[in-house]
Amino acid sequence: MLHPDLKTIIIMGVSGSGKSVVGSLLAARLEGVFEDGDDFHPPSNKAKMSAGTPLNDDDRWPWYATLRQRIEDMRHLTPNYVLACSALKPIYRDKLRAHDHPETLRFVLLDGTKELIATRLAGRKGHFMPPTLLDSQLATLDPTPDIIRVSIDQTPEEIVNDILKKLGDS
Fold first, then answer.
1. How far apart are CA 42 and CA 20, in angstroms?
2. How much is the pLDDT for 132?
3. Is the predicted pLDDT of residue 12 greater than 60, yes or no?
4. CB of 22 within 8 A of CB of 83?
5. CA distance from start to end of the chain
6. How far apart are CA 71 and CA 9, in angstroms?
7. What pTM did the predictor assign?
8. Segment 77-80 long-range contacts (CB within 8 Å, at least 24 positions apart)
9. How would you classify the pairing of strands 8-12 and 148-151?
10. What backbone phi and psi angles, to 5 degrees, belong to 160?
11. Which helix (H) or strand (E) holds 96?
């Protein structure tokens, strides 16, 4: 049983960890709404990443402000909102969390080995994030004790089951 105050679940992790697939399955199980944070990047950010250049914090701050506003807007539209967002650094998670109580917004890290994620990235077509940025994302990833970690070395359905179990236990 999920905490009754839980309104937002952010599926986080590096590119290729399965945020979109898992997030959409999770939202369907919760009868909620899923959105991919990548869809809210301005064209300039997408162009920069497509060229193989990692974003800097100045690129990210307006994007995180947009995502936070979206979180607040969705609270009036659905009881369960699932957002996919890398949220690699604690300060990025702070921007998304804002003033929310820990039971209101939870972060779930899709955790996997570099080799597994690199294999997935190599097989992905049509995404603006090139596999060459994986090392920079892994170097930036800074998990904190408040996040729920879930192994991606299982099927998407098993990952969702694991997330729901861990959310219910926390």
1. 18
2. 62
3. yes
4. no
5. 10
6. 10
7. 0.91
8. 77/33, 78/32, 78/33, 79/7, 79/31, 79/32, 80/6, 80/7, 80/9, 80/27, 80/30, 80/31, 80/32, 80/33
9. unpaired
10. -60, -45
11. helix 90-97
By the 8 A CB rule, do 108 and 11 touch? yes
148 close to 169: Cβ distance less than 8 angstroms? no
Q: Which amino acid is at 99?
A: H
What are the pLDDT digits (tens) for 82-130? 999 999 999 999 999 999 998 999 999 999 998 888 888 776 665 555 5
Q: What angle do CA 106, 22, 110 make, to 5 degrees?
A: 60
Contact 3, 10 (CB under 8 A): no
Q: What 3-state class would DSSP assign to 3?
A: coil
